[in-house]
Amino acid sequence: MNDLTRRGVLMLAGAGVAGLFAPQRARARPRAPGQDRLVLLGVRGGPLVDGYAQTPSASVIVFGGAPLVVDAGYGVTLKLIEAGIPLRALRRVFITHHHSDHNLELGPLLYNAWADGVADPVDVYGPRGLAELLAAYWRSNRIDLAARIADEGRPDLRKLVRAHEFTQGEVMREGDLAVSALRNHHPPLAESYALKFRLGGKTVVFSGDTSYLPALAEFARGADYLVHEAMFPAAVGRLAARRPNASRLEQSILSHHTSAGDAGRIAAAAGVKTLVLNHFVPGDDAAVTPAQWAAAAGAHFAGRIVVGRPMLSLPL
To answer: What is the pLDDT of residues 184-213, one digit of tens each?
Structure first.
């Protein structure tokens, strides 16, 4: 027996026969550090990006160490990093509707998580059109994807991402996490939804983009947080004047968004613990102050009102 073979036998003997047949320990999935929480990442309504501070719609719920991303407007990747969420911990993403200020960075977010080392499946939930959106992104980056899979030995991102298209009703359930959807009113999109997250003993509801929707009050009944979009109607005309290439923008905005006052009405009817104003329209008008947003909602809701801002973290 040569020295190499002898050393191999001795090593196997030292390990013991049982060690030869022991299953490999499962790789631990990365976790988001810190307590369970809701973090607002981007709070601006509409697709405009004019700097890093104010970016379009994106939030994350951290529950049991798992980040649940809600909408993926432009800037979501960098805001997640700023919030201390490891991209490789990405596990679930939820898209409320297919307007670009809610889904423009979905593909890049998934890609960035893959570049950071994600190796486990990522489930993405959204209305009809989600699978088509992802397929188009994979096609647009097929050269890079193929090159990195072959050259760097990475798993195929297209096979890691699992798309789930939902309609009104239960979206998913696993352990203490349950998510359900309510169709809201956001023309011209027929497939637009509010989302309710039941997180053990806590409930967080996102209105999504919608006009005033009384049915949302029952959907959000008793929620710990109602994260509701907010429009300031008196400032919409000024917003439209700053966008000369959109001749019907003012009428469009007024037809399918909810005023801060009406968000307060929904919160009062639902009896929620906290109303979180979010997705501000306009989000770039310094003449509308946080106090004005709060006062508009507070005229109809006597409970706790939080005027959202980027990177605001709320405990669960």
So the answer is: 999 999 999 999 999 999 999 999 999 999
